[in-house]
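Wed. Picked up where I left off yesterday with Secreted pectate lyase. The coffee machine is broken again, so keeping this brief.
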Amino acid sequence: MSTSRGRHRRTRTLSAAVAAAVAAGGVGVWAAAAPDDAGAAGAVVVSTTAQLEEAFAAAGPGTTIQLRGGTYYPAKSLKSQADGTAQRRITVTAHGSEKPVVDGSKLPAGEWLVAIGGDHWTLSGLTFRNSRAHGVVVTSSVGGIFRNLTTHGNGDSGFTLRGEGTRDNLIENLDSYGNYDAKNHGQNADGLAIKFGSGTGNRVVGARLYNNADDGVDLWQWASPVRIERSWAYGNGVNRWKDPAFEGNGNGFKLGGGGASAAHVVTGNAAWDNSKHGFTENSNPGALRLHRNTAYANDASGYYFATSPSRLSRNLALDNATGAVKLSPRVVSAANTWDTGRARPAGLRNTDPTSAYGPRRADGSLPATTFLATGTPDIGAEMK
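Structure written out below (tokens, as returned):
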């Protein structure tokens, strides 16, 4: 959101609880200018839910909130419309190498666990789980960095970007899994949703989006290009919740829908074991670009691009239930496995995904694996 709109430019004061923590020199330490300075920056280390709620609500340009390891149970949504700036970001992060978890199981029904409507936020090293609605929702925001996050077990999508003017956000090394919307029988809960809005420069890198009720990635009604790189979507759309009226879609990468036209760029990704397509335009009429992706053992097509003028190059499709591809005559298809007539590259030797399910590397990047790796730059995802 633009900083020119005059939102939330109010003076901030700290509560007695936080002030006491400062005085004690213990779990909460604020470093800030005078309370009547509207641009005051602060930093706080929190170890209780009350401190987290207080710090989140008070955040402004330059604030850093560090969460100690443990589990936090907010009683209301962690909401903020505050803007940081490119030079003075608002940062919410783990304290050192600790592993904080923010659990939404005590939220009222329908409340999102985290709702951010400001610019230049950073969230990193945190887990958000068990909301009865959405996990993390970022709306009409600019310049966000969302790195090394986990969202799971939420009652709608794990992580969502939405709204007009949502631009230049980076989602890196996200694990989002096991999200299920019971009230809609799994129809809406995606691992990552970039929906109902527009804005350029949004980028997804190194995500694992798996075992969600609906899709791994869903770009429904997003009217601007999104770039998705080196991410994996698997096991989506399977009825793990024993819902007799289950309606989850189960695409790995759903790249449109709802009438929006956008030329998304999708490169170096893999989709496997999804209950529908690996990659689909989903009626997006834009000229999408898919390069060096891999679709393996999905329950429908590897690539479903039945209407768009997209370009697919050097992609791999193997053992998908209804075939490698469904392509419009308008699609430009070049040097893919179905073009070469060689379905399985000689260098592809490992179809056991076990290593891909392991822990991430120390820097948060995807685990080392030879699963589906082709050993050549000529075709398919590198799987790293």
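Quick read: DSSP finds three helices and 32 strands in the chain.
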